[in-house]
Input
Amino acid sequence: MGTDTEAVVAGELLTAARLALAHQRGIDHARAQSPVTDQKATVKDALSWVTVEGARALGLEGRVGRLQAGMQADLTVIDARALNLSPANDPIATALNAGAENIEAVMIGGRWRKRDHRLVDVDLDEIKGRLCESAERLLLPNRVTQGPYLPD
Output
């Protein structure tokens, strides 16, 4: 699972997994033409779409995607005390429903990249500046000045 356009959904994999799960459940309900009590896709399935299955899709299942001896594991620590995750009685559903604001810490390849809800060793102003420069390069040559949705 991945996101290829932020115009439709934020580039957050957990958001994409939640949307895919909701979409699949909608299809299941429509096919059954009644409420479905036995869901084909579960929250565990949805979480695997962005972990184990993501690694498999990239041909990296032998190296990443699961917490296992010999694998390079990225760790995400979720602060489940926030109101949007209460009650956090199902750890898988809690992880799937977490947003960026709930991610307390991230370790990638044995190195902390986020701690105490803040990115580590990242100059956000520099990154934002580079993003703005990129947007200008992309938008200026193609800027629409007239059209059905813009005033003449």
